[in-house]
Design goal:
The chain is α+β, with helices and mostly antiparallel strands. The protein is built from nine helices and 24 strands.
């Protein structure tokens, strides 16, 4: 399946340049101009078949099959698994042993494919495409292989609220384009056995169970559309709530500024002010707070008390760049500093079950020796603000306007799949 971009220009030379530049491999740690990786581009274009590989199981040994499916190896149908049965998968050296009742099958890799091209259901979850089973260093990897468009459908509602009626529809279309662009970059920089993880490490993926007719329609209406900058797939980040200003990628993910990922004002009245996380508060007991600093290896022991917090600097967006914490123990007063987005993972939320919602806050210790954190926004702040996009959709803005707002200077192009 060849990869093309349809442009308004019909100049062959211009089209060829765009086609070849489309195979960039994106590295998050740098935003230097993308290399073209000449030695890879032809094979990437040739091998790209509109397929995504999502790791859905990291050590699966028992699979409950809830829909009729074939076990396939080397393009041969080995057995039919009837709905309600289970298979046992065991790693044996570099191969797999699959047990179905009294039948055993050995091989390097196996596929589970639905009968009649319907959804395949395993372990009470439905998936489009097929399921691949392989042995990687003694672990059974379960991988969902499916089309790019079907993958995006399985991401949509896990990352964006559908809303009432069509109020969020333009935001859903904008997000579909962003998510598709993100996935495409990951495909061209794929891991050995899979392209994407199904959680917040990449994009949250729920398979066919998470699909909704409206979000599916948003994917279908934007089929093949991606966001580009200088005729290359754009680097995509998104977050829940920017609280008035998005953040520059250089302050969170990249070493240098990216032209279309600089901090922007999100409307005179912030679009995302409708978010339930526009304002928030966390209260953390002092001992719990100290333990988190100790767990982060910032303190040698937990025998400290908090004296004072000093916000030494903020980014122009209002998010904290450096937070200094003055502490006291038997040896006297000492200080530590934590920086940028790492503040969120070190301090954590009130229960400790997740990271702090953002690093845009004020902080103090009260008379009851609790740490009070009063903050704004949710997420790292870079790129598309999801609640801001939703607000713009409700104000009648188009998906093109939404994407142009959060990724200024980018263009929407179409893939020919």
């Amino acid at each position: 399946m060849n990869l093309h971009i349809f442009l308004h220009s019909h100049h062959k030379i211009h089209l060829l340049k765009i086609l070849l530049s489309f195979v960039l491999i994106f590295i998050y740690s740098s935003c230097a101009p993308s290399k073209r990786f000449t030695e890879y581009k032809e094979s990437l274009i040739k091998d790209y078949k509109n397929e995504v590989r999502v790791l859905i199981g990291n050590s699966s040994r028992e699979l409950q099959i809830e829909s009729d499916a074939y076990i396939i190896s080397e393009n041969e149908k080995l057995a039919l698994v009837k709905a309600g049965n289970k298979i046992i998968v065991e790693p044996i050296y570099e191969e797999l042993l699959i047990q179905l009742g009294t039948k055993n099958f050995n091989g390097k890799e196996f596929y589970l494919e639905s009968v009649n091209d319907s959804l395949i259901e395993i372990n009470n979850k439905k998936y489009r495409g097929r399921i691949k089973l392989i042995n990687v260093d003694g672990d059974v990897k379960t991988i969902n292989q499916l089309s790019l468009e079907d993958y995006i459908k399985g991401v949509m509602t896990k990352e964006m609220p559908v809303g009432k009626g069509t109020e969020n529809y333009e935001a859903l279309k904008a997000f579909a384009i962003a998510a598709r662009t993100y996935a495409l970059n990951k495909i061209f920089n794929s891991r050995t056995y899979y392209d994407l993880l199904p959680d917040v490490s990449d994009q949250v993926y729920g398979g066919a169970d998470s699909e909704h007719p409206l979000s599916n329609s948003a994917v279908d209406e934007t089929r093949g559309l991606i966001l580009t900058f200088e005729n290359k797939p754009a680097i995509i980040f998104y977050h829940s709530t920017c609280a008035g200003y998005t953040e520059s990628s250089a302050n969170v993910f990249t070493k240098e500024e990216i032209e279309y990922l600089k901090s922007i004002k999100d409307g005179d009245t912030p679009y995302c002010s409708i978010s339930p996380n526009f304002n928030w508060k966390e209260v953390i007991p002092e001992k719990t707070f100290i333990k988190r600093l100790f767990d982060a290896k910032l303190l040698k022991s937990e025998n400290y008390s908090i004296e004072k917090f000093n916000i030494q600097s903020r980014f122009p967006s209002g998010r904290i760049n450096e937070l200094e914490i003055l502490l006291k123990n038997d040896d006297g007063i000492s200080s530590i500093s934590i920086f940028g987005n790492q503040i969120r993972s070190i301090i954590k939320n009130q229960t400790g079950s997740g990271i702090l919602k953002s690093n845009n806050f004020i902080i103090q210790i009260n008379s009851e020796r609790n740490i009070e954190i009063i903050g704004k926004g949710y997420g790292h702040g870079v790129g598309l603000c999801q609640w801001g996009a939703i607000a713009q959709s409700r104000l009648g803005k188009s998906y093109q306007e939404i994407l142009s707002h959060y990724f200024p200077g980018t263009e929407i192009k179409r893939l020919n799949d």
